[in-house]
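G., the chain you wanted modeled:
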Amino acid sequence: MQHVILYTKETCTLCDEAELLLSLFMEAHPFELERRDIYTNDEWLEKYHLEIPVIEINGRRLYGEGINFEAIERLLAGD
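Predicted structure as C-alpha cells:
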C-alpha cells in the first residue's frame, strides 16, 4: 500500500480541495494518507510555507496550484 503525505495547515482552502481530490482515488488506488501540519515542525514550515498544499508520494511531490485530478492520477500511477 502506498503512503501519501499531505502537507497542510489549518484554514487552507487549497489543502481541503487537495484532500478531497485524494479521497476520489482511495478506492481505485488504496493508500495510507498522512496529514502533516507545517506549523508543527520548523523544517516543514520553512520548506513548504509558500508551497502548500504539497502531496508527496515516494519522494515525488505536487505543489499548490499544480495539484489537480490528472496530476494526482499520474503521481499515484508512478508516471
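The helical segments are 13-23, 42-48, 69-77.

Shout if anything looks off.
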